[in-house]
Amino acid sequence: MKRTLLLVLSILISVASFAQISPVYTNAFQHVLDSVCKKNKIKGVSAAIYRPGEGIWTGTYGESHAGTPITSDMILPIGSNTKTFVSAAILKLQEDGKIKLEDTIGTWITHKYVNGQITVKQLLIHTSGLADYTNDTAFFVAMNADYNKVWQPEDMYQFIDTAVAAPGATWKYCNTNYLLAGIIVSKIANKPLEQALRDLILTPQNLQKTFLFPQEQPTGVIPHGWSANVTGKLADMYTEIGYTNTAFLSMATGAGAYVSTAEDNVKFWHALMSGQIINAGSLAMMKDMYPLAPTQGYGLGLMKSSLNGRSIYSHGGTCFAFLNENLYDSVGGVYITVLSNQDSITNDLLHARVLGALHKITVKMPALGIKDMNTELAEAKIYPNPATDRLHIALSETGNNASVVIVDMTGKVAYSGSLKDGDNEISLSNFATGLYMTRINNNGLIQTQKIQVIK
């Protein structure tokens, strides 16, 4: 039988081998970024795009402040995208047998307004029924009293009010959930949250430009933040208002304290969604959505929606004077992060007009050809494609450390298992007709391919 390799989505490469994206597309990305930001009067933006098989493009627009342009190495607050890191840490701890999503939080959290029977999963998926501590008036009074004060996570207990619903009764986005989830991670790891997250995620993935602020001090520059929400006109929050990020971000902690570059953030999303941080089973749990609309849902620190006709996963973020929007296109395998130093343009605008415009270019790009594969990857032969009853994966030099995961287009795991040298036969008896994604990990070299099953 003829063995063919149908490259529909092309190859995903490891973080260590990211290269500059092909110059043929960089002008288009930068032109769109410039024109959209100028049209919408956005102060500054740092963006990064990971294109399968080609690597990462970074681009910027605008300025930090007069005479200082935004540069790709600047580090911006990413707000609630921090929640995705915390959720991944919980799932990783579950893989290590140190916690279960079904565990009740009373083991670690004691508070008169926090029901100890709330489960860890209910925190992560926002069905705890807890009141949002960042909505308490006293929270903002305390923050505005001293922008330079460093708060500890447990200090936030004073701002937690009476619960708004019974655990599991309804879905409501709530920062208290991830305040508590971060505290739980810290208690299980027996170390501060910043160190726990670094040990579990940042260091293994070589994410050197991501920091839990202010407990960790960035090695790069944080640009000035801008907002029209204070005085009614666009103002430099640092020089005109006297604002600093210290108090708010230390109060945000596990709910929103990370700062990062756009490039580091897109690397995080790639590592997460390609199974390099948590395993396939954990990733499936993260993608198990609480339905919010026909095409929208919220999983474990992960949002699902659609953009430009594609299903995407994401988690935006908002801080005083800063915004973050990002996506993983589950069809095209593209990852995009857009960070802005202006909060008054709103997340919706940044998502629809900037992120959406950049994503639209990637949707129109042709699929990469065989010549675009990273030459360091050991090519697996996956056949037949389309397949009916059986799928074959032929490998050489696995070193007894190769595995495959096959997921459907919703992200549900249909098959996972180890691979040996030579031919591996996988039964498709339990597969329904449709498209699936195979992900082969051969000693750290990652190959993905879309397959079609026809019954």
Give an overview of the whole structure:
The protein folds into two domains: 76-364, Beta-lactamase (3-Layer(aba) Sandwich), CATH 3.40.710; 374-453, Immunoglobulin-like (Sandwich). It starts with 22 loop residues before the first helix and ends with a strand. The protein is globular and about 65 Å long. The chain has helices at residues 23-39, 82-95, 120-125, 137-145, 175-189, 193-202, 246-252, 262-273, 280-286, 347-364; strands spanning 44-51, 55-65, 68-69, 76-77, 210-212, 226-227, 235-236, 258-260, 290-293, 296-298, 303-307, 310-314, 317-319, 322-329, 335-340, 381-383, 390-395, 402-408, 413-419, 422-427, 434-442, 445-453. Strands 1, 2, 3, 9, 10, 11, 12, 13, 14 and 15 form a ten-stranded antiparallel beta sheet that branches. Strands 19-18-21-22 form a four-stranded antiparallel beta sheet, with helices on one face. The protein has a three-stranded antiparallel beta sheet with strand order 4-8-5. Helix content is 25%, strand content 25%. 47% of the residues are buried. α1 runs antiparallel to α10, α2 (82-95) crosses α6 (193-202) and α5 (175-189) packs across α6. The model is unreliable at 1-19 and 368-378 (pLDDT under 50). The protein is an alpha+beta fold and 455 residues long. A hairpin with a 4-residue loop joins β18 (402-408) and β19.
The CATH class of the largest domain: Alpha Beta
User: How is the biggest beta sheet arranged?
Assistant: 10 strands, antiparallel
Instruction: Give helix % range.
Output: 25-40%
CATH architecture heading of the largest domain: 3-Layer(aba) Sandwich
Rg over CA atoms: 22 Å
Instruction: Name the average pLDDT.
Output: 90
Total domains: 2
What's the number of extended β-strand segments? Answer: 22
Q: Categorize the overall geometry.
A: globular
- Count the helices. How many? 10
Determine the CATH topology of the largest domain.
Answer: Beta-lactamase
State the distance separating the first and last CA atoms: 19 Å
For CATH, the homologous superfamily of the largest domain is named as DD-peptidase/beta-lactamase superfamily
